[in-house]
Amino acid sequence: MTQAYVVRFVGGPLDGRVDSHAKAPEAPKQTVTHVHLHGGPKIVHHYDLQYAVEYGCEYRLRVEE
């Protein structure tokens, strides 16, 4: 039995989200962009890739300066 490749999101509106994939991607995206659309202005968050040996990788919210 093979274990799933797990991608976790840390921080921002996606905090706590966990995606499972059957296998690791050949070339994971270095940055994931999340765009929140609602009645007000568009809000954009960027998540940067960090590897986590225990389960796969995680995307951490980029701190905009």
Report on this structure.
The protein is an all-beta fold and 65 residues long. The chain has one domain (5-61). The chain contains no helices and five strands. The protein has strands at residues 5-10, 18-21, 31-36, 43-52, 56-61. Strands 2-1-5-4-3 form a five-stranded mixed β-sheet, with no helix packed on it. It is elongated. It starts with a strand and ends with a strand.
Keywords:
5 strands, 49% strand, mainly beta, five-stranded mixed beta sheet
Question: Topology, please?
Answer:
Blueprint: E1 5-10, E2 18-21, E3 31-36, E4 43-52, E5 56-61
Parallel strand pairs: 1-5
Antiparallel strand pairs: 1-2, 3-4, 4-5
- Helices, by number, come to 0
- What is the end-to-end distance? 44 Å
Q: What structural category arises from helix and sheet content?
A: mainly beta
What's the alpha carbon Rg, rounded to whole Å? 13 Å
Q: What is the N-to-C order of secondary-structure elements (H for helix, E for strand)?
A: EEEEE
Mean pLDDT: 86
**What overall form do the CA principal axes indicate?**
elongated
List the uncertain runs: none
| Structure summary, number of beta strands | 5
Beta-strand residue percentage: over 45%
Domain module tally: 1
Q: How would you characterize the largest beta sheet?
A: 5 strands, mixed
- Order of strands side by side in the largest beta sheet? 2-1-5-4-3
Helix share of residues? under 10%
